[in-house]
Amino acid sequence: MILLLFIFILAIFLGFELISKVPSQLHTPLMSGSNAISGITIVGALIAAGSENDTVTIVLGTLAVVSATINVVGGYLVTDRMLAMFKKKEDLKK
Amino acid sequence: MDLTDIINLTYVIAAVLFIFGLKMLGSQATARRGNAISALGMLMAVVATLLTKGIAFQWIVVGLIVGAMAGAIAAYAVKMTAMPEMVGLFNGFGGLSSMLVGWAEYHLHPESPTFTMISIYLAVLIGGLTFSGSVVAYAKLAEKITSRAVLFRGQQVVNASLLLVIVLFGVLFITFPEGAYTLLIVAIALSLILGVMAVIPIGGADMPVVISLLNSYSGLAASAAGFVILNNVLIVAGCLVGASGLILTNIMCKAMNRSLANVLFSGFGTVVTKALKSAKGEVKAMSPEDASLVLEAARSVVIVPGYGMAVAQAQHVVRELGELLEHNGTEVSYAIHPVAGRMPGHMNVLLAEADVPYEQLVEMEAINSVMPAVDVAIVIGANDVVNPAAREDESSPIYGMPIINVDQARTVFILKRSMASGFAGIENPLFYYDNARMLFGDAKATVQALVNELKSI
């Protein structure tokens, strides 16, 4: 438990370090990209949906898988769509 | 090495890929690859989970297919102007999923150790709040409900008691895990209500803060779910998102010169400010013909777009104007206020969509330092973010907010529908400045007229 909390704290600092220098031009893709990462809860959803023996758990789990997948797939695709639009001058001339 | 080791190792690799991906999202040159790397990390985490012994696939496959189709359709169909509500909605689904994971885990193991019970409660609570809050934010941004702040008497008291009850239930839930199912269900309902209550008092112009904050919550919810199922990759990834959301929230608050508490509780945008120090002088209107002559002679032009430009769908014709000026040898850049648009960085995406080159998108601080050397600043659909009262008039409600100092340019063109005040209802003395010229009319039509005039010169 303590180890997990330790990891949690370290990850907070890592997150602050990683993000604090992102230019404001890229804030929207950054947000939607990190939003897609928060869909990592899909791992928990898969485990719940795959537990064979209990109907309620399967229902809850399957709903969780659906929502998390929307978050993950939609988030990554829409981020990619946006980032593809940011072009440098030379790319635009082609 | 047995299967469990391989799975756990894959989780570690996934976490590393998320970290690299996020890092690469910080620069235009690597951002797209960074996003792909982070997606690869996600795929690896999913595959590793599916390798776990005793997992039944039939419902998983159904869930994955339905979710992937819905997500992909939404991602491709969404218009760039609607990006804030889309991201808000995706965010809500992430929160919902964490809530359901917590619930399912409790259903499966109702008598867990205290630490797990706390984690379950937090996952359900933050997840539920993120979900309902995001749905309300979505509805506000999509203008399915009023985008104004909704306030009523005793709102703070209601919210505070709601929070108190939730904490109380949490303590009971953790102390008496066996009979706590009802408590959990009620807590879920309460967290959903809290999410709604937290977002309705926030006005449309403050949405960038709320979207950032909800983004942070969805990460924290995932992290809490990670503590429930004791999984490192959830904890780390969720935490990274939580931190990034908080940083963006902080940046947005700073750009509005307001504290987070002020944004969350004050209901900005409903306050009708009295006409402060009513501005003196007269407004000087200018025709597109005359304006185009000034532009033709200008050596440097800065375009300051606000949300009004997006509403008028004027970004493509604005880009055309920029290109024409460049051909004419004028130096063109776009100055973008951090809170322009309805989410952080939104205006940049809209301009990028209209093929404005990345180099021409300039941050506020960078443009302000060269503003006195700028010949013409063109303000399109922006108001409060160029209001010099923020710098000079201590009685102004936006006093202290960093602005783009267009008034320091040699000439300022302001494209405006009429003389009505901006979203926050604040008078703008800029319009009466000697170097300011008003171009009245629909933004898109005015810019189009400028383009036509410049072409005919």
Explain what you see.
The complex is a heterodimer of chains A (94) and B (457). Chain A has a domain at 26-87. Helix content of chain A is 78%, strand content 0%. Chain A is built from 5 helices and no strands. Chain A is flat. The relative contact order of chain A is 0.12. Chain B starts with a helix and ends with a helix. Chain B folds into 2 domains: 78-264, no CATH class; 288-456, Rossmann fold (3-Layer(aba) Sandwich). In chain B, helix 14 (346-353) links the parallel strand 2 and strand 3. Chain B is elongated. In chain B, helix 8 runs antiparallel to helix 9 and helix 11 (288-297) crosses helix 17. The model of chain B is unreliable at 269-277 (pLDDT under 50). The chains are: A mainly alpha (94), B alpha/beta (457). Chains A and B meet through helix 1, helix 2, helix 3 and helix 4 of A and helix 1, helix 2, helix 3, helix 4 and helix 8 of B.
Layout of helices and strands:
The complex is a heterodimer of chains A (94) and B (457).
Chain A: H1 2-19, H2 27-37, H3 42-49, H4 55-85, H5 89-93
Chain B: H1 3-24, H2 31-50, H3 58-77, H4 83-108, H5 114-141, H6 155-175, H7 181-199, H8 207-228, H9 232-255, H10 260-266, H11 288-297, E1 300-305, H12 307-311, H13 315-327, E2 331-336, H14 346-353, E3 361-363, H15 364-370, E4 376-380, H16 389-392, E5 411-416, E6 436-440, H17 443-456
Helix pairs in contact in B: 1-2, 1-9, 4-5, 4-8, 5-6, 5-7, 5-8, 6-7, 8-9, 11-17, 13-17
Short account of what is shown:
The complex is a heterodimer of chains A (94) and B (457). The model of chain A has no long low-confidence stretch (mean pLDDT 91).
Q: Would you list the SSEs of chain B in sequence order as H and E? A: HHHHHHHHHHHEHHEHEHEHEEH
Q: Write out the strand line-up for the largest beta sheet of chain B, numbering strands in chain order.
A: 3-2-1-4-5-6
Unreliable segments of 5+ consecutive residues of chain B:
269-277
Largest sheet of chain A: none
Number of domains as seen in the coordinates of chain B: 2
Largest Cβ-defined interface: A-B, 80 and 110 residues
Report the strand count of chain A. Answer: 0
Strand content of chain A: under 5%
Question: What summary fits the major beta sheet of chain B?
Answer: 6 strands, parallel
Q: How would you describe the shape of chain A?
A: flat
First-residue to last-residue Cα separation of chain A: 55 Å
Structural class of chain A: mainly alpha
Shape descriptor of chain B reads elongated
Q: What kind of oligomer do you see? A: heterodimer
The total count of strands of chain B amounts to 6
Mean pLDDT of chain B: 88
Query: Helical proportion of chain B?
Result: 55-70%
Strand content of chain B: 5-15%
Share of helix among residues of chain A?
over 70%
